[in-house]
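This protein record is not my work; I was only asked to verify it. Take the sequence as given and treat only the tokens as open to question. I have pasted the whole thing underneath without changing anything:
***
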Amino acid sequence: MAIADVEIFGGGIFGLAVAFSCARRGVSVRVVEKRRIGSGASGGILGTLAPHVPDNWNPKKQFQFESLTMAGTWWSDAEHHSGLACSYVRNGRFQPIADESAMRLAVERQKAARRNWGRAAEWQILKPESTWVPETETGYAVFDTLSAQIQPRNALHCLAEAVRRLGGDISEGCADSNGAAATVHATGFEGLLTLNSELGLTVGRGEKGQAALFVCDHADSAQVFAEGIHLVPHQDGNIAVGSTSERNHNGRTDTDQRLERLIEKSRHLFPRLRKVPVIGRWAGIRPRASSRAPLLGPYPGKPDHYIVNGGFKIGFGLAPKIGETMADLILLGRDNIPDAFLPPG
């Protein structure tokens, strides 16, 4: 097998995003996934691409904002190259406003959105017509037009096929390097643990997440975030709800009573879910950097090696910008990475 220009370890969303962004610039890429595409945290079922709140602006929020605004074009290009659908749609998100204190905060954030989002998206305060939005004492909800959704497994296979059709190689069930001019490590929570050991620092950890899938066809509905639960109506006629966030998991990826309690709470919060079946349950270990920002940049002590890790709950939302930013760094030497994202050392 010919040596690739860029070899990427990890076939999750970050690894495939970098592979696609490099491949469409005409360089040869190889993705090395020791299990299979979608076997890790990226192969979940929720698929919410939602922004941070628009106040207290910082480089992380700016980076995420730019990624979310470029996502439609970027994913459309992936579909064009692959011939597969990723099921991306930007149809916004409701967040019910619980009380007058929350209303005052929502008004301040509306002002912040006008400053920081400009005309690219809106943070609206309205009385929702959607019957999915739980009622509150105010009767109002925030609706942001920046949030989008995607079906994670479809998106991963869309990117993998795009890389193949652009001449790249996807090696599943493999961990061996063929050598390359540049090597990217996008190896999820296991990669963070390796980095902890190598640096003698705690730069990140894995946190377990769980989610459920209901049969309930409301594909045209916007997503809802209420009382810590995301509800995402997908284009295939199912609704995903999630997710838990569990620091103590002992590496186990089986579903458990935490998910059953989440399902019960979801049915209480969204009554239309009470009589429909659960058709899928998912659990995985998500990579969370200690800084709460993704880790991007040169691998400490390893020339021509790079780290792309720490997506945690917002990996799919960050993927377009991360793919292009890392391609700029690896192929052009152009460093546009926020300082807060750089690995220690």
